[in-house]
Specification:
Strand order of the largest sheet: 5-6-7-8-9
Helix content: under 10%
Number of helices: 4
Largest sheet: 5 strands, antiparallel
Distance between the termini: 150 Å
Number of strands: 32
Strand content: 25-35%
Amino acid sequence: MSNQTKNLKLEKPLQEEFYDVDVPNGNMEKIDAAITTVKESYVKKSGDIMTGQLIADGGVKGDLTGNATTATNISNTGTVTLAKATEQNQIDITAPAYNAGNNPVKLLNFHWYNDTYSLGAIRSDSTPIYGLGIYLNGVNKAYWDSSGNYRQAAGAIFSDSFLLLSSGSTGISWGGGDVGSPVEQQVANLKISSWYSTGFYDGCTGNGFTVGINHRTGEITAKGSITGSTFHTPDWFRTSGDTGWYNEKWGGGWHMSDATWIRAYNNKNVYTKGVVQADGGFNGGLNGTATYAERVQNDGGPMRFHWAGQGGQPTWLWGNKDGDSGNSYVYNPSNFNVNYANGAGNVNGYSADALKNRIGGRNTPVLTPLLDKSQGSEVNTNTGAGLQGQGAGDLHLVQSYQNFDKILICWANDNLDFFGQTLWEKWELDYAFGNTYRFSLHKAGDNPYWNIWSSVNLGTSTHLLSTPTLWRTQDQNSMIKEIYGLTY
């Protein structure tokens, strides 16, 4: 059986087969049909226009003009002119391999008057940048980086205007690091250059320009308010009209409505812990208390009042006349006569009756317990007699005995079934602590006794020193039930 070729399936007789004229005739028919298909389907020419598809693996010499509706790859050392593609078609251009250096790979050139606008790939070896660049006469003006971010190239200058239009939010951003202060160091991440000024225009409600910046002087003018957390200036904060500074939270501030006075807005009070100085004086009434006044003006001149006790009798005293309480005058005390005293108010805080009772001891005093038994030793209770007392150790007082008029010592025997008391004047205890070696709280020298060390060492023998709140015990054979401070 004969073999066949791979593509057109032509018959290939074997060596041992007899020659059959129909076999070569059939092969010729297949070859003719294939050539006809190529001629009709791939290359058709009508005048100077070629339709269909042209496949030339080795390339095409000469210029190709007309409309290329579909071009897979176009390689040419000259100029390629492409017709406008329809919305359904597109042109795919693949840049050649990048060679070292900072030169861009320009993909498309657009000629407009004397300028050439180019769209091409961009890359920098020194600072790696990959993306799609826009060029004017061979100089890169802007590009989209490989992350899709729009960047404006250094030194890029657009003629007349540069307009950003968007239905949403639009911005100009620079992603570099901090470079310094524009005004002080003359550097910035984003530089906006203008011959005179930059204006912000209201394109929504028709208010026109609402903010203006003078590039020469740095002045900023705004129709609305300027809000910030902190404002600094080496110059004045200036207002115009009858205005000034206003605290929006509390409704007060400072303002001027004439050329004479600085006024507190809304008649707010003025407070300071410092000093208010007025070399020209005060106008109007002064109310309240002056806690410190350097001088008080009077008929004889500025005068200072001193609150310091003086001995002897003064030559003059201040006083008022009957019916003239608004004026004070000086009087000679040597002319004073005391006809009689209708009553005495108090002496050192005591009324006359209280002073009488204090001297005579004829009223019931207030008793304040002073003994802190929690710090004492051998605190026992006789349940039968209902008495409790401290039987040893130092006596701790919750406050000084010197705060009271008298001190009452309530004591008992060791069995807590016999009660006794000793009353001390404060001055007596003061004397005993300050002028003895030791003494008994019961005053008597025999049984029972509770001996206390004094608060001083008078001789060569030393001992523990008592204080107004800690009475050091020397010896005892009784119990201390309580120590009371008495106040009349």
